[in-house]
Amino acid sequence: MAAVDSGTGALTMARQSMRLLSWAVGDVLRHPFENLLISLALALTIAALAVPLLLSQAIGATTARVLAGAPDLIVRKVSPGGWAPIPAAETLRVARSVPGVTRAEPRTWGVVASPQGTVTIVGVGAESTEALRRHLQRLPGVGEAVLGPGIGAADRAATLALTGETVLELHILETLPADTGLALNDVVLVNVADANLLLGLKSGWASDLAVYVFHPQEADAIRADLAAAFPWPVRITTRAETARIYSTGASRRGGLTVAALAPAVLSLCLLVAASVRERIGRRHEVGLLKALGWTTGDIVRFQIFRSVFIGVPGTAAGVLAALYLVFSPGITWPGTLFFGWQTAPPALHLELNGAAWMLPAISGLVLLPFLSACLAAALKSAVVDPQEILERDN
Amino acid sequence: MPLFPSANHVPDRLLPARWLLLAAGAFTCLALGAAAFTVSTHERSANRKCAELARTLHLSSPALIPSGRFLRHPETALRGIDWRFSPRLPVMAPGADEWLRSIPEPER
After folding, report:
1. Quick one: what percent of chain A has pLDDT higher than 90?
2. Residue B55: its chain A contacts at CB < 8 A?
């Protein structure tokens, strides 16, 4: 019997709550623009906070994924004037003699000038792997070049002039697709002979050495042995260090953006809080409702329902906006805004790792204080005695 | 409602609005559904080709930053002096050195 009673009571309460909710929604319509502005302010606050944080997190994750197959160690010969070229055959022999090194490849690359700005050239030799042949229509021969998507977008000419130690006019074979932009946006693949000419390298010399080890954790341990094995001073960079530099760089930019946005977001929150407090704290409305027979509990629930009705759609809109701004395939705005691209920025396809918990956390961070402020204001106004209001108004 | 409402008459309009409740609920569900759909169907293989090319070319840094910037190819220690940009003395004309040496020193 008691169970039936409690079940009926819960049903009655649910019906009453639904009725209150529909009345609360009706109350929103009494001040539609004010409530719409509060909802938009919440959406903007969430989007403004979420976008830089999501972006920095996603860039870190995506960079780590793209660099997952990168060389474990990069060995560069250094001289008092900076880095120096290495004799490929001797360097390979020395590197392979170090226990733990599974593979070593000399790289020919460097930075040269082009009409589209500074570009990175990468020398491709005849010994290139099958994977590279699969992705390119044809490997670049002497006098030919394959352009990264950022360079191709800037100019559709048939040739590209590159200026390094010498000036070369290269015939453009093809432009790589936009989805390779994260690694090759302003990279030009050229024949290794052309790369040597542009960088001023003699035949048989290379820019640096890519070293692979059996297990990534060995990279740090092997570093000292590798440095000691070479007869000249070398600087060795691990993959983890490179990934950390990009990750911390993106986090720093995200943090700076949030810091720059913080005063604007705070002022927006203060305006919203003032508006909500003023709206909820209108005592004559509370007095009128109480005179009509509403209980204090009814009024508090009414105000909470109203706040939830305003806050939840705004939060959902903010979450959606942040998600689409950051994770739409091929976004280019971060390159222009954060990374200083003057030419076509890389089209990013960012990884979603971490967004699933970050978005609810940011939404809660904004929505909960909003609802708490509404609850406090509602409690304060609801406990007032109608007699007191009548006396004050008179 | 009176035909000519007085200046003090303010319509209350506190009426239940189920349609708005339904509309807002539908919007919220749609927005959160779209967000969930985006998360679940996000193309995780989008960077596969990019990663494969980077691995094949032994690239060690992404192209997030333009080529001319130092961070594009980071080095973890201080850079040496790039003597290419150091000030240079004017080049002496050919034969000037011998001519200068041939000038007898003034008597003191």
Report:
1. 18
2. 69-70, 131
